[in-house]
Write a structure and sequence with these properties.
CATH superfamily of one domain: Ribonuclease Inhibitor
Number of helices: 26
Protein name: F-box/LRR-repeat protein 18
Pfam family, one: LRR_FBXL18
Organism: Nipponia nippon
Helix content: 25-40%
Shape: globular
Largest sheet: 20 strands, parallel
CATH architecture of one domain: Alpha-Beta Horseshoe
InterPro entries: F-box-like_dom_sf (IPR036047), F-box_dom (IPR001810), FBXL18_F-box (IPR047948), FBXL18_LRR (IPR045627), LRR_dom_sf (IPR032675)
């Protein structure tokens, strides 16, 4: 009766715990999870106690706005006015939606020590005005866009830059940026994003602009990192930065990293630089273009101190050389926490001269690696054929299960195959179906249990991959990518129309292996690409139920290419993904219809969606309804098979309906095979392009904690 209900509620209120009765320490810990803009502009206005706590130094010392997609110019202005003097570290990276005038309010933060403005719109004059007031600044991250003019920097600005010891520059135009002004540099991070052609179609030159002949100051440099986007102009410009290093190598240099796609030829200057490094420095982190390592004895002469990061991505380094020259015949490398061997096709074989890429690996090399580098936290073995032999106990999965500290792992699909099962089992009808876009063939598909309990009891618990997943309970990032997989949407090129068939060893990897991933309770990021034996996708449901911390999901080319066989399971999975923030789907013939978007609407935390599908279709009404229901979504990228008119109309409708309430909204809907796709891609904010829109392996891509 009503009286009993009221009585029960009163008793509950009297026995309940009031949040304000918690200690200040507990409340501060709780408040640390609240965005700073909400703390200062909203929470502190609720009561006197919270008004005091929200302004505690532990909460205002570091302000992170880099993924606060609801922040706007007015909120930033009010935030800086209220607590500007209390801020020592400010991260506005990727706030592409804020107008450049927003930067003017940073001048209120007189005590700033670290400032990250990567991805923000800023001119030379605004940068000069801002830096002139930040006398305590020691760490800076900025973009250098076309039109940047170092001559516009004031003497006060240059004085501030002379005290900066950490600099991160993203270059969109050939320039030294502010590097020549930073005479005390200890850490230099360079991201080269210069296109070979202008919007008008003119070829660009790698020569620096007039007035940019000043020489960078590297004498105190400890960390040098350069990441190049595809293109010859980026290579030309980075050589200008390296020319000074080749004259005199800094004595304190301990991390030297250059990430360059494709071919980046070694020159006389770079050879002199490497020879000087071999004589004068001891490194803790190393990454070089493959052409600088292949066929040279460089690794034999370089000296290492306590290395924490190695990347030999796409090098022809053999396992024998890896053990002898890097691990020094089994030397204790407990300090190594991150290792990238992506695309290093012979790294687990003794020699590469007469070996085929598909030959079995030498398990003794992997075992030596595991024993010597027992504290690895990040390991990338993708983009290669790592086939285990039939030797009992020497399977790649069994050896990797010894690495109990792993937090992120990337493997090729063919490496997780249970060899014994693969040998005994004859090819099934599904394995014989060609992975093409030709005429569809009707085949018999084995029934797969929808009941997860029955599924777990079938046979998967005895597989080596199931055991590996069970041993890596604290894994946060997992990538299982086909060794021959390539995305349909590469960088700076037209969409790829043909894909290579999967490895023969990968033909048996399917639903049961996906179900095994459900054991990873703390999994936050999952990538699955080119798993040919997906029949129903039922393993995805297991992941949705068990991996409740999953934030990022990327699925590409699962099962037969002519049909999306896992759609039903995917929709069931999405209903359980309450923490999912980023979803990327790449699958031919994908139908983004009402049922799919209705299931996706259960992902209440979703912020970014990207769908890439040749011959894919979409329903405009369903997309609009989804955007209206999912209020957190700020990025919607769809590259499908629809006409240009349909795509443009939908894009305009989304922007017109939701841009006012979502300042960070970024919408790109465009035909995948359209000739102007590359022009559209160049306007996508780098944060979205790099983190989700373009497909790539991200495990051990960079050293851990490279930038804050």
């Amino acid at each position: 009766c009503p009286q009993e209900i009221v009585s029960g509620e009163s008793e509950e209120e009297s026995n309940g715990v009031n949040l304000m009765e918690f200690s200040d320490e507990i409340l501060l810990h709780i408040l640390s999870y609240v965005p700073c803009t909400d703390l200062v502009l909203n929470v502190r206005r609720t009561c006197r106690k919270l008004a005091t706590l929200c302004l505690d130094k532990s909460l205002t010392h570091t302000v992170l706005l880099q993924k606060d997609y609801k922040v706007n110019k007015d909120k930033v202005k009010q935030l800086m006015r209220d607590i500007g003097k209390e801020i020592y570290q400010l991260n506005m990276a990727g706030c592409y939606w804020l107008p450049s005038s927003t930067i003017d309010h940073v001048t209120r933060c007189k005590n700033l020590v670290k400032l990250n403005l990567s991805g923000c719109h800023i001119t030379s004059l605004r940068l000069s005005k801002m830096l002139s007031t930040l006398q305590h600044l020691r760490s800076l991250a900025i973009d250098v866009n076309p039109g940047f003019d170092a001559s516009q920097l004031s003497s006060e600005c240059k004085a501030t830059l002379s005290r900066v010891s950490e600099l991160k520059q993203t270059l969109y135009t050939p320039s030294y940026g502010v590097v020549p002004c930073c005479t005390s540099l200890e850490k230099l991070l360079l991201y080269f994003e210069i296109l070979d052609r202008s919007r008008e179609g003119f070829m660009l030159s790698g020569q620096l602009m007039v007035g940019e002949s000043n020489v960078p100051h590297y004498q105190n440099l400890r960390v040098f990192y350069a990441r190049l986007a595809p293109g010859y102009v980026n290579q030309e410009v980075v050589r200008l930065y390296l020319a000074v290093l080749s004259d005199r190598t800094p004595e304190n240099l301990h991390a030297f990293l250059i990430s360059a796609p494709g071919s980046f030829a070694e020159t006389g200057a770079t050879k002199n630089l490497l020879d000087s490094m071999a004589r004068n420095v001891r490194l803790d982190a190393l990454q070089l273009p493959k052409a600088w390592i292949n066929g040279s004895g460089l690794l034999q002469h370089l000296k290492f101190n306590n290395p924490f990061y190695f990347s030999f991505s796409r090098c022809t380094l053999s396992g024998g050389h890896l053990i002898q020259r890097v691990i020094n015949g089994g030397k204790d490398l407990k300090s190594l926490t991150s290792l990238n061997l992506s695309g290093c096709v012979h790294c687990l074989a003794p020699e590469s001269l007469f070996r085929k890429a598909e030959d079995d690996i030498d398990s003794s090399i992997l075992e030596s690696l595991v024993v010597a580098c027992c504290n690895l936290r990040h390991l990338n073995l993708s983009a290669a054929h790592h086939h285990s032999s039939e030797s009992i106990g020497n399977h790649l999965c069994q050896l990797l299960s010894r690495l109990k500290h792993l937090l992120s792992l990337a493997l090729p699909v063919c490496s997780i195959t249970d060899v014994a099962a693969n040998v005994e089992k004859p090819p099934t009808a599904s394995n014989l179906v060609p992975q093409t876009f030709g005429r569809k063939v009707r085949i018999g598909i084995q029934t797969y249990p929808r009941n997860l309990a029955d599924q777990a009891n079938q046979k998967i618990e005895s597989s080596v991959f199931w055991a590996l997943m069970g041993s890596l309970r604290f894994l946060e990032t997992l990538e299982i990518i086909g060794s021959s997989f390539s995305s349909a949407m590469p960088r700076n090129e037209p969409a790829i129309r043909n894909s290579l068939p999967p490895c023969v060893r990968a033909q048996s990897v399917g639903d049961s292996e996906v179900a095994a991933i459900g054991q990873l309770t703390y999994l936050q990021s999952l990538t699955l690409a080119q798993l040919p034996n997906i029949l129903t996708g039922s393993g995805l449901i297991n992941i949705g139920l068990q991996c409740q911390h999953l934030r990022t999901l990327s699925l590409a080319n699962l099962g037969m290419m002519g049909k999306v066989v896992y759609m039903s399971a995917l929709m069931d999975m999405l209903k359980h993904c309450k923490c999912l923030r980023d979803l990327r789907l790449e699958q031919p013939y994908f139908c983004a219809g009402a049922q799919f978007f209705q299931a996706l609407s259960h992902c209440s935390s979703l912020q970014r969606l990207c769908i890439v599908s040749r011959s894919g279709t979409l329903q405009s009404d369903a997309v609009m309804s989804f955007m209206a229901n999912c209020l957190e979504v700020i990025m919607c990228h769809m590259f499908m098979g629809e006409s240009l008119t349909v795509c443009k109309n939908l894009q305009q409708s989304i922007v017109r309906s939701f841009q006012a309430d979502r300042p960070a909204l970024n919408v790109v809907i465009f035909p995948l095979l359209h000739e102007d796709l590359t022009e559209v891609i160049r306007d996508v904010p780098m944060r979205h392009l790099d983190e989700i829109t373009l497909f790539k392996s991200r495990v051990a891509e960079e050293p851990p904690n490279l930038w804050w």
